[in-house]
Amino acid sequence: MRHVHGRARRAGVALAAVVTWAGLLAGAAGCTAGDSRSGLDRMLGKPAAPEDTIRVMPQDGTKGVRPEEGLWVRVPDGRLESVRVVRSQDAQEAPVAGRISADGLSWRPDTARLALAARYTVDAVAVDGDGNRSARHTTFTTYVPGERFIGYVTPENRATVGTGMIVSLDFNREIENRAAVERAVTVTAEPAVEIRPHWFGGTRLDFRPEDYWKPGTRVTVALRLRDVEGAPGVYGLQHKTFSFTVGRDQVSLVDAARHTMEVRRDGALLATVPITAGAPKTTTYNGKMVVTEMLELTRMNGATVGFKKKDGKGEYDIPDVPHAMRLTDSGTFLHGNYWAEPDAFGTVNLSHGCVGLRDVRGGASDTPAGWFFDRSLVGDVVEVVNSNDKQVAPDNGLGGWNMDWAEWAADGTVE
């Protein structure tokens, strides 16, 4: 299954003894497919579309929202259980204060006006009139004044990340003068290591070292974009320095043919977990993928990522997928699964392209999915091998580790 939506959190780090998840087999695919569809329908009924269950304005993916347009979250019935809104500016996150109405049907921020040149993330969980929980995750960006450009930066300031993190700037406008913009961005590390840039088109600039970062490395990113001309008459707005720390080294190897995932911490085998990957007609990408988002609960609807039936509805629509970890921008996740038939994990591939681990409804820490989620960080690497699919594109999520160093380094415009 390749999709998004839910309530986010960043997992803590904990060491554990080597565990083998033998005997924990149960359930079916991480993304619903074929034979398990009728069982899923029985369990979930026919859920309403995500935008009907939890309504958010501005709409998901909207760009250039004006400050006076405001923000609200509503449900037609039932009640909002929780709403979390985060504003991100210059790689620094800040929670947006707000409150749920007395009747539980709506949420509004305490301050009506939105900030300029910011990205907002909304995570809401609701309980409908029948007592069913569902989640929605949306993002939008606000207006950048005048002929200005900014770069939305990954990761966040002061974050602790896995060793596979790539520094990524997503510009709100096409950059024509790449050399000038590249010179205005400096990425350094302590201890020192060579770091090189790579452009993906005219709106994205990534930085990485030749190999994964060493644990304990402190990385500093300096943006000196203010008044830099990125395109004729379009000037930068940011003058900011931020940093992040690299945590322990964790790399997980998913073998789609063997239906297993080996989790290695600092090179030592921590666990071997049974999984289910993409079905023969909806295979999982091969290659190295980086965790970019962690959602305790999320909604996944196939219609939003191209898996549609003849009536236009999604081939699946699951309102409360637990322990979801985004691996690609196109919607590949590693996530928990509670809706499946017995003995699929470790034996067969049934999903729509995701990697599924056994879980229970609502998620639990003592399931394989919960165990892995609690020991993961944004920036951890998940590598998939032996799948009958192509290698993931280097600009699909933080997939730049799939390019060799010579190809990566050759794209920078500044020596």
TrEMBL record:
Keywords: Acyltransferase, Cell shape, Cell wall biogenesis/degradation, Peptidoglycan synthesis, Signal, Transferase. Coiled coil: none annotated. Residues 250-385 form the L,D-TPase catalytic domain. Pfam families: Big_10, YkuD. Gene3D superfamilies: 2.60.40.3710, 2.60.40.3780, L,D-transpeptidase catalytic domain-like. The active site is at 335 (proton donor/acceptor), 354 (nucleophile). Pathway: Cell wall biogenesis; peptidoglycan biosynthesis. Residues 1-28 form the signal peptide. This is Ig-like domain-containing protein.
